[in-house]
Specification:
The protein has a two-stranded antiparallel ribbon. With about 100 residues, it is mainly α. It is built from three helices and two strands. Pfam families: CCB3_YggT. InterPro entries: CCB3/YggT (IPR003425). This is YggT family protein.
Amino acid sequence: MGLVLWLVSLALLAFQVLLLARVALDWSFVLAGPAAAGSVRNRLAVGVRAITEPVLAPVRRALPPVRMGGVSLDLAFIVVFLAIILLRAVIGALY
């Protein structure tokens, strides 16, 4: 049982790292402009989005981004990130 919980915690940690990578890549597009097709940055962004979007999309449908003037805050990302932190804390308490 301990091994299974450890593997689940590890998978959640990996997903958390991918979420942080998505933030960094999204900000790189904002600050540096669009990446050239086939560039490393573009391929990384496509890969990270392919993994994270299936989890974020349903949450985003339930919690649309909040508009604050000219900026929108993606609540789905925050909810998923905090849920992963909570799940990992519960798993850590179990073993």
